[in-house]
Specification:
globular; binds pyridoxal-5'-phosphate; about 475 residues; 11 strands
Length: about 475
């Protein structure tokens, strides 16, 4: 073994080439999994040197890589990586700290404490809330709802951590009809079940209707868990959190959770903050770092107002593991864990309040620009473009065919969805490096590909049928 340097040099060289190619390389290339497997080979009997492994690995990997961190990837809600956050992530890997308990890495624990406090300030959340750095909004939702389960059942005289759910008082779960699938997944894993959750009607943008929530609550005895949302994955719309909190204000047996994976970052923008007004009245919040804050995977924050509930729900205890206040794993699902808060700290420090606001505003402005250009090109913009999401119906073509043509073309990448039972395209702007020119070029290319497809028969694979009606 030659120490760390030679292998890291290969990684650095590859990273430099990859990152430099992001603005120009085809964004998403359809790759053949079998060809990728073949290049990776079989388990060798004997080892080989790190440099050769890194060279072979990067060469084998590259044909299957998508430029999702680049400026013209508009699929899902996918941030890129700020240079400072990527570099901080390398520091995390190089230092190999276990941020389970503070004694294993006081540095990591304190950086996470500071990053968490800064995030609370920026997002306008209660300053004394507990923050756990999770792997994504999925696990942040689970962490938050585990705290909710603890608190709601403790108030009803039930120790769920000790007794489990069999025989426990019933908790009624209400969530918007447009809630994210990961909230439903969290409910499944926490024993609430997915089928019993009451779906509260939403408006045409996917926002929960407070009056409908009020009506649903009338029939319901406590305890009640309400899952609201900031940033609907199709429309970007935020539930009226002030109105929802007002409906719940009269009862003390409720817990309000906000899945704000990307939308909660609107709180950092003076011009979009109103969209999440009332967020601070909730009890818990999940927000991603790897989406709009543009830190590398995997990064999210689970925030809980009631610190004791979070720690009771999540901390592992063992004679050799006396968890204290500062120990990160008392607020996360993981035990051994990388200090995910370090790249978050780096991003927040590099951007400052103004920089995060600018990142949010720029993406929203570019989404509005894309919407205008699509509309001028005869594409129907289905949503009110209030945030960074643009939802599109394309008369005359199957959107699955169009998305496939866009992927093969390589200029940009967009995904499909189904909105109110009609297939649609989803165009999300969430990368710091996306420019107006990137947006214009991408929209023009999508429109040109649409023109080529119009009138062509729907492909056998695109079974969804025509998108317009
Ligand atoms: C992306 C997203 C999630 C899931 O986040 P992950 O980071 O992928 O786990 C949850 N809720 C909403 C609204 C999202 O946009």
């Amino acid at each position: 073994m030659d120490g760390y340097g030679p292998a890291l040099d290969v990684a650095r060289g590859f990273a430099d080439r990859w990152l430099a190619s992001l603005p120009t390389r085809p964004v998403g290339v359809p790759a053949d999994p079998e060809a990728l497997r073949e290049r990776l080979g079989d388990l060798p009997d004997d080892g080989s040197d790190a440099v050769g492994v890194l060279e072979d690995l990067t060469a084998a990997l590259e044909p299957g890589l998508v430029a999702s961190g680049g400026p013209r990837y508009f699929g899902f809600v996918t941030g890129g990586s700020l240079p400072v956050a990527l570099a901080a992530d390398w520091v995390v890997s190089a230092t190999d700290q276990d941020a389970a308990v503070a004694v294993m890495s006081p540095g990591a624990a304190v950086v996470e404490e500071v990053a968490g406090r800064w995030a609370l300030e920026l997002l306008g959340l209660p300053r004394d809330a507990a923050v756990g750095f999770a792997t994504g909004a999925q696990t942040a939702n689970i962490a938050c709802l585990a705290a909710a389960r603890h608190a709601l059942l403790a108030a009803a005289g039930w120790d769920v951590e000790a007794e489990g759910l069999a025989g426990a008082p019933a908790v009624t779960v209400l969530l918007g009809a447009g809630a994210h699938a990961t909230v439903v997944q969290a409910l499944k894993l926490l024993g609430f079940g997915s089928r019993h959750a009451v779906r509260v009607p939403v408006d045409g943008q996917g926002r929960m209707r407070p009056a409908a929530l009020g009506a649903a609550l009338e029939a319901v005895p406590g305890p009640v868990l309400v899952c609201a949302q900031a940033g609907q994955v199709n429309t970007g719309a935020c539930d009226p959190l002030d109105g929802i909190a007002a409906v719940l204000a009269g009862r003390d047996d409720t817990w309000l959770h906000v899945d704000g994976a990307f939308g909660l970052w609107a709180a950092a923008s003076t011009t979009r903050r109103h969209l999440v007004a009332g967020a601070d009245r909730a009890d818990s919040w999940a927000v991603d770092g790897h989406k709009w804050l543009n830190v590398p995977y995997d990064s999210a924050l689970a925030v809980v107002r009631d610190r004791a509930a979070m720690v009771r729900a999540l901390s592992v205890s063992s004679p050799y593991l006396p968890l204290g206040e500062l120990d990160p794993s008392a607020r996360t699902l993981e035990n051994s864990r990388r200090p995910r808060g370090v790249p978050v700290y780096a991003a927040l420090r590099a951007l400052g309040r103004a920089g995060v606001a600018d990142l949010v505003d720029r993406c929203c402005d570019l989404a509005a620009r894309a919407a205008d250009r699509f509309a001028a090109g005869g594409v129907e913009v289905v949503n009110d473009v209030v945030l960074n999401q643009v939802l599109l119906r394309v008369p005359g073509v199957d959107v699955a065919d169009l998305a496939r043509a866009v992927a093969v073309d390589g200029t940009c990448w967009v995904g499909t969805t189904v909105w109110e039972e009609v297939p649609a395209l989803r165009f999300s702007v969430s990368n710091w490096s996306t420019s107006a020119e990137d947006v214009d070029r991408s929209v023009d290319r999508i429109l040109a590909l649409r023109d080529q497809l119009v009138g062509q028969p729907v492909s056998a694979r695109g079974a969804a049928g025509p998108a317009s009606r």
